[in-house]
Write a structure and sequence with these properties.
alpha+beta; 8-stranded mixed β-sheet
Length: 157
């Protein structure tokens, strides 16, 4: 049996994207998809550097966000969380998107999560997207029009 993961594409904070595309645009990906597994691994390897930068943002940077896996029974959906903060036991933050499949959370809800739940991170620097590795991995599953759209908003994958 193949398990599919839902990845929300919308990158919150990029106002033009939110206005022109569905904030809850999703792509189904098999849980063992090699490009997605590699994207999550890359994001996790750079997480400490990202968290340090997010704690003291550099000039010309904004929109710091984490992508977090949320499980509901057998289903898993990935959400952008923004804003977020580290806590004594992990992290907390606000879900930036509404769920499409799972029913145990809703957009705008404050959630608690662990480092192991983090699948990606990203921020904007000078109008370009930094991080957001899972979005780049999804390009192969998108139409050329969708890919061009995201590239227009700073994705240099």
């Amino acid at each position: 049996m193949k398990i599919f993961l839902l990845f929300l594409l919308a990158v919150v904070g990029t106002t033009a994207v939110a206005q022109q595309r569905d904030d809850n645009e999703i792509v189904l990906v098999e849980s063992d998809d090699p490009e997605m597994v590699a994207a999550i691994r890359t994001a996790r390897e750079g997480l400490d550097t990202f968290l340090k930068l997010a704690s003291a943002p550099a000039a010309n940077t904004s929109e710091y966000r984490l992508k977090v896996m949320v499980r509901d029974g057998e289903d898993t959906e990935h959400f952008w969380v923004m804003p977020f903060q580290q806590t004594a036991t992990g992290f907390s933050g606000t879900l930036a998107n509404d769920p499409e499949v799972i029913t145990n959370v809703e957009g705008g809800q404050e959630i608690q999560f662990s480092r192991d739940d983090i699948s990606d991170w990203g921020y904007e620097r000078g109008g370009r997207q930094v991080g957001s590795y899972t979005v780049c991995a999804l390009f192969k599953n998108m139409s050329a029009e969708q890919v061009d759209y995201y590239r227009k908003y700073g994705f240099d994958c």
